[in-house]
Amino acid sequence: MGNLMLIEFLTVDGVMQGLGSPQEDTEGGFTHGGWGAPFAESIHQVVAPSGLGNTSSYLFGRKTYEKMAAFWPFQPDDNPMAAHLNATPKYVASRTLHDVAWAGTTVLSSDFSAAVRELKETEAGEIAVLGSGNLCRQLLAENLVDELRLFIHPLLLGAGKRLFGELPMPKNLELKSVAQTDLGTIALVYGVQ
């Protein structure tokens, strides 16, 4: 049975928008894109080198998928993240996306919740969700998330899309681990009960 985990990079005030580059996501007039770049090099201090090996598939929302598909297939395979993303099965939850060019991608277009439940039943490893804020909120609301892996960077932006939104009911979390980089990023792993 697969474990579904959300892997998210956030500011202290919960912003997840535009982590990687200035033009990554300017929706809503967001002008702080690329805020995560100064902290990227230190993430290896809190992530085990074997971390990618447990991920058997990736699940994305449409917007995140399109951004990832426009970048990662064109990166050299000597980049461990590129090699893993390009070789690992990918699923994208979308009612509007039909044609995909990134090898190994399957579109989950109908009865999304049932498709994710089936995916969890058939996958043997970890199903990783990267970014995909709308998808994350839906997965949490439908009790499909097993684990949160949050990388909280020492930064307040005051604007931008936040990871968490309203839930039908509170969720208890079990703290599994805490680690810190020398730049002040906190890595938290929570089991979702």
TrEMBL record:
Domain Bacterial bifunctional deaminase-reductase C-terminal, by residue range, is 10-184
Give the top-rank taxon of the lineage listed in the UniProt record for this protein: Bacteria
List the Pfam families hit by this protein, alphabetically: RibD_C
Gene3D superfamilies reported for this sequence: Dihydrofolate Reductase, subunit A
Q: SUPFAM superfamilies from the entry?
A: Dihydrofolate reductase-like
From the Swiss-Prot or TrEMBL record, give the protein name: Dihydrofolate reductase family protein
Q: List the source organism.
A: Kocuria carniphila
Identify the taxonomic lineage of the organism of origin: Bacteria, Bacillati, Actinomycetota, Actinomycetes, Micrococcales
